[in-house]
Design brief:
Layout lengths: L4 E4 L6 H12 L5 E4 L7 H8 L7 E4 L2 E4 L1 H11 L8 H16 L2 H6 L14 H14 L16 H15 L6 H11 L2 H11 L9
Parallel strand pairs: 1-2
Antiparallel strand pairs: 1-3, 3-4
The protein binds glutathione (GSH).
The site of glutathione (GSH) has 14 residues, from helix 1, helix 2 and helix 3.
């Protein structure tokens, strides 16, 4: 896999695109990217043309097309060692929390949309607070040897949670202890900072994303 192509949405808002992009960077690749602006007329048609699933991100590796951020992560993990924890028990846990993020937390996702430029502290309603508490519990798992990421070294689980750290920062969601330290680790992770820098150059603004 020499180079791959990733179609993404607006970097400022598209949390699933960020996950796919982080997974590619974790694999040591620097993707070519193109953006489908999710606020422009005709974007649904462009999505349909680019993605069988009609969503971003979409990875292209030669003539192979992989859509959905989790599928992209799994595809990369088959080809690049070290994207999941080496220990089988930790790996199973990493699978579980990544899947939980991919399929869960609907109230939090609806109430606290990713907007990298937003700073709007708010008090989450109870359904959101319950999901936030579950995420904070995941982030407080016993410290793993080998580094500050969820399982020590960076893994695909961290790609899944990085957009959530950004949401919590934007909306002033309080964290403490290990969860707070982990959120800081994600927000200062060089690939995340690269994405954030590129996002700051985008001029598209979506009201109420
Ligand atoms: N589960 C999918 C979700 C992808 C998704 O919903 N992406 C959003 C952008 S963040 C999208 O393409 N939305 C299309 C639309 O707004 O019509 C994944 O992990 O890739």
């Amino acid at each position: 896999m020499a180079t791959v192509h990733l179609t993404i949405g607006n970097r400022r808002y598209s949390s699933w695109s960020l996950r796919g992009w982080l997974a590619i960077r974790l694999a040591g690749l620097e993707p070519d990217t193109d953006v489908i602006w999710l606020d422009e007329p005709g974007y649904k048609e462009r999505l349909a043309a680019a993605s069988p699933g009609r969503t971003v991100p979409v990875l292209r590796d030669g003539d192979l097309v992989v859509w959905d951020s989790l599928a992209i992560a799994l595809y990369l993990a088959e080809r690049h060692p070290g994207l999941w924890p080496a220990d089988p028990r930790l790996r199973a846990e990493a699978y579980a929390v990544t899947a939980e993020m991919h399929s869960g937390f609907p109230a939090m996702r609806a109430a606290l949309p990713m907007d990298l430029s937003c700073s709007d502290p708010r008090v989450p309603e109870p359904a959101v607070a319950a999901e936030v508490a579950r995420i904070a519990a995941i982030w407080s798992r016993p410290e793993a040897a080998g580094g500050p990421f969820l399982f020590g070294a960076p893994s695909l689980a961290d790609c899944a949670f990085a957009p959530v750290a950004s949401r919590f920062r934007s909306y002033g969601v309080p964290l403490d202890g290990r969860a707070a330290a982990y959120a800081e680790t994600l927000l200062s992770w060089p690939p995340f900072l690269d994405w954030e820098t590129a996002a700051a150059l985008e001029t598209h603004v979506i009201e109420n994303p």
